[in-house]
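User: Fold this; tokens only.

Assistant: Input:
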Amino acid sequence: MKYFPRRSETGIGPEALVELWRAKSQDRGWLRDSDWHCSATRVAAVMLSKRRDPDSAVRSLASRRAAQGVGIAESLTDLQALFEVFPHPDSQGLQVVFADAWVESTDLFSHQLTCWDPGSGLSNRQHFERRVHELGLELERVLERHGVPGQSLHLDVEPVPVDVRALRRLLGTLWH
């Protein structure tokens, strides 16, 4: 059950702000709608829409995003989406507060959170999906910058060899 106070002084209520923010964040590249909503997004919306100091709400949101395993780039893009739909006079300062809190949280949780499967040493599914999504966005930017149509790009996929020498050969081709 969601609880939001009545209309705020700014003319936009917290619930409407959350929905506008979520939509903007998804437009800017948020991966999954299901992991965007959290209590910290609601608190940030309430604090901003009521024109209260959002510092602690922004710190809390950063900690939550870090604990979810959301990378700093995606997290900051999400925060920028918030300030696009609801400008704040100190948005740059709040971005610094957010980044600091995100880094602090990852330091605190680093012994509990991992992006790697301890059994195989490979990236876990969530980390892999996020990186592929980021790699795809960056590849699009590079292709656009050089005027290369995305449809002209083809990737070869090769299974990882079990034999150590074959694995070294494959890895060695990545840097040549």
